[in-house]
Amino acid sequence: MTPDVRAVQVRGLRKSFGQVAAVAGIDLDVPRGCFFGLVGPNGAGKTTTLSMATGLLRPDAGTVLVDGVDVWRDPRGAKRRIGVLPEGLRLFERLSGRELLEFSGRLRQLPADVVAQRSGELLETFGLAGAGNQLVVDYSTGMRKKVALAVALLHNPGVLFLDEPFEAVDPVSARTIRDVLTRFTSRGGTVVFSSHVMELVERLCDEVAIVNGGRVVAAGPVDVLRAGRSLDDVFVDLVGARGWGVGALDWLGG
Questions:
Q1: Which label site among 28, 78, 250, 254 has the fewest CB atoms less than 10 Å from its CB?
Q2: For the residues 176-197, what does the mean pLDDT come to?
Q3: Which of 32, 49, 40, 13 is nearest to 206 (CA)?
Q4: Distance from C-alpha of 137 to C-alpha of 167, rounded to nearest angstrom
Q5: pLDDT of residue 1
Q6: What percent of the chain has pLDDT over 70?
């Protein structure tokens, strides 16, 4: 593999549902070791893009390469290189947290001793060691996010794709997730994640792509896109904030 291959390359990605174009020709370049944010309003195409990039949803057109491997021509090879935290957190809820990790490790064909060691370390790191034998169905939202991220990390992938990893997560869990992801990228891993929280994206990300109407309307290093402004202001300007009409909501607070 040549050293200049990017962690993720997306070209001409398209997906329609009936007459609605959810993704209308997206191109992305994600450098290795990058914390890359995919942001946009609801319905912009973020989740659809991530689903196609990870082999969960077949595109109508376009290509996705992960470490130079085509996700749709060599899905097995591509999936060995990625970890995924999808929308919806569909987990095997009648397994305990530890059993879920062990089951995932067996699916990945990892040696039993490696799975046991990594599972213990991940449960401890995410503050789940005491709940390792508890059924996932009884986990809180934050605990589910953390155990799902542990599953995504178990096989030590090169690239993580995370759909809203911080949504509905308490501040302590969010800090733990941020710390783990920062360590992951500092050691050469790549994170691609979607989020609505501009402050978080601005703080964490090296690069960002702003998506609206199924297209990338701006992309590049965060500081370049900001150009001295807040990322929130740039985002609102690009996606078209709705203004107040004259006299609108004057009755509020009266």
A1: 254
A2: 91
A3: 32
A4: 19
A5: 40
A6: 94
C-alpha–C-alpha distance, residues 155 and 40, integer Å: 30
Instruction: Say if CB 65 and CB 9 are below 8 A apart.
Output: yes
Mean per-residue pLDDT of the chain: 90
Domains of the chain, CATH where assigned: 1-80+206-242 (3.40.50.300)
Q: Which amino acid is at 250?
A: D
- Give the separation between CA 35 and CA 206, rounded to whole angstroms: 5
Look at 88 and 70; give whichever has higher pLDDT: 70
Q: Is the pLDDT of residue 40 over 80?
A: yes
Q: What is the Cα–Cα distance from 212 to 192, expressed in whole angstroms?
A: 17
Residue 201 has pLDDT above 50, yes or no: yes
User: Given the DSSP bridges, would you call strands 35-39 and 207-212 parallel, antiparallel or unpaired?
Assistant: parallel
How distant, in Å, are the alpha carbons of 31, 67, 140, 226 from that of 3?
11, 10, 41, 29
The residue type found at 168 is A
Cβ contact 105:73 at 8 Å: no
**Secondary structure (H, E, C), the chain:** CCCCCCCEEEEEEEEEECCEEEEEEEEEEECCCCEEEEECCCCCCHHHHHHHHCCCCCCCEEEEEECCEECCCCHHHHHCCEEEECCCCCCCCCCEHHHHHHHHHHHCCCCHHHHHHHHHHHHHHCCCHHHCCCEHHHCCHHHHHHHHHHHHHCCCCCEEEEECCCCCCCHHHHHHHHHHHHHHHHCCCEEEEEECCHHHHHHHCCEEEEEECCEEEEEEEHHHHHCCCCHHHHHHHHHCCCCCCCCCCCCCCC
C-alpha separations of 22 from 45, 155, 177, 252 in Å: 5, 32, 29, 36
